[in-house]
């Protein structure tokens, strides 16, 4: 457990055999003039290290809300949430943010690259959050640029890249610090089919190397890249299927 004398990151020692994350009776609700409006209702599941899970459902099902909670970006919910056995539901916002920065990478539909930073500088951002020395960051960024075939584009700005290239930078940024978990929210929503396949095949490669991935998608084709599919409807978890 975390103590007052130790930080979140110092105290984080995942026990062997524990799920990467577990949620129990997770709920999110808004108070409205007409009464309570539930976004998520009694969501319960486990995800093991190394899984590739797809979350599907119609618009308004609660998919993106669930992803925001799992990524510790949303603090307004109830229920139990364990990350490698650590009780996220008992942490304060600062502890959750620290855990997020250390162990979770995000890929967004809208890319969310920083417009006035180059490709290399965008890749450097997650490393700076983890207090990696500048010389080490430069070496890690250079390796990522080479791995993703972007060495020639390292000094370009996002506006100078195609949508597929921007999303490739987004994936590289998400995995550059070797997070335990990558969360992807409609990662191919703005891409044409060949670019989408390239991104999904890249996710598969990362997953085969041991990275746990949870993606939200409307695409049944993309969902099948996952080993398991969680179906949401009206905030409820309808079913979970093997992909």
Structure notes:
By secondary structure, this protein is α/β, with parallel strands linked by helices. The chain is built from eight helices and ten strands. Strands 6-7-8-3-9-10 form a six-stranded mixed β-sheet, with helices on both faces. A four-stranded antiparallel β-sheet has the order 2-1-4-5. It has helices at 8-11, 63-70, 93-103, 119-129, 134-147, 163-175, 193-208, 220-223, and strands at residues 21-32, 35-47, 52-56, 78-83, 86-87, 104-108, 181-185, 212-216, 228-233, 236-242. It has a single domain, classed as P-loop containing nucleotide triphosphate hydrolases (Rossmann fold), CATH 3.40.50. Helix 4 crosses helix 5.
Ordered list of secondary-structure elements with their pairings:
Elements: H1 8-11, E1 21-32, E2 35-47, E3 52-56, H2 63-70, E4 78-83, E5 86-87, H3 93-103, E6 104-108, H4 119-129, H5 134-147, H6 163-175, E7 181-185, H7 193-208, E8 212-216, H8 220-223, E9 228-233, E10 236-242
Parallel strand pairs: 3-8, 3-9, 6-7, 7-8
Antiparallel strand pairs: 1-2, 1-4, 4-5, 9-10
Helix pairs in contact: 4-5, 4-6, 6-7
Principal-axes shape call: globular
What is the N-to-C succession of helices and strands? HEEEHEEHEHHHEHEHEE
- According to CATH, the homologous superfamily is P-loop containing nucleotide triphosphate hydrolases
**How many domains is the backbone divided into?**
1
Radius of gyration: 18 Å
**E-strand count:** 10
What's the pLDDT, averaged over the residues? 88
Counting DSSP H or I runs of 4 or more residues, the number of helices is 8
